[in-house]
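Action item from last week, closing it out:
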Amino acid sequence: MQSVLDHKLLVVTGKGGVGKTTIAAALGLLAAREGRRTIVVEVGEESRLPQLFGIAEPRPGVETRLRERLSSISIDPDRALLEWLQVLGGRVSGRVLASSGTFQYFAAAAPGAKELVTMVKIWQLTRGGGRGTRSGNYDLVVLDAPATGHALGLLGSPRTFGAIARVGPIAGQTRQLQELLESPSRSAYLAVALATEMAVTEALELQEGLQSRLGRGLAAVVVNALLPRRFSTEELRAIAALEDGARDATAVRRTRSRTGAAAAMTEAEQRAVRLSAAHAARAAHDRARFQHNQLARLRRRSFDVVGVPFVWGTGLDLDAVSAIATRLERGL
């Protein structure tokens, strides 16, 4: 059976703020660990992956080697469009073109042009070439795509422009790019979600969008930051009994406090602490139960679901991302 890593292009998307870049980085680490020459593509001005690996932020659009068999590159859609227009404009410098009304007019008059040239650059990486690359010849390109709506616009740009540009170089590239996106053997799509109602709903909408635009579906859904289900049924009964006992003690404390009994106050304070601990345990259980109910929503729709545990700490470092990669290896 073909793994999601056994493709030329792996697209990672989902609701904003669910940890797409972390999962894309973990997939890149996993692929490189398994011997695949891999590049992770970020879309936008920022380049976050080199910082994770302790490397100074590179120039936009230039491949950066992160470690053996793993590289990254950021593609800024505005810059990509400018470079494409430079090719069309011959010797016109980028500075002149960017400051001219022509560039602004074209960008406004051709919605989706930036998305298309961005996707063409990604397609070139799958073929082992393209401006800004050094080694090329990748086994896998992992696209850290924008959030769901923008990602669908990005992936739908070849079909939109394919209906307009029927001849010339851009038409040929667009057709080949469309073939890549529609080919089950060459490309795969992965959703990342938190176990919240909104994020899971967006993953379901992503599936529908992929089906309508590309005739494709999700290979899997990675549910990030899952809390463990810590308590058995018997332990939950004990927590409930603790809550009830502590509430009764609160009434006793109020009665005895009127008499000024210091010992009774001390005992009541201890019971109050136990009540707070019971409430915290109950809240943790309820939140974990809600999360696993959201996983059940996905599984009822026959998705392959991979859970990634919540990582405790002030921030994610390379060791934490590597641990996530190991988790993905078991699930994917």
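Closing note: The chain is about 55% helix and 15% strand.
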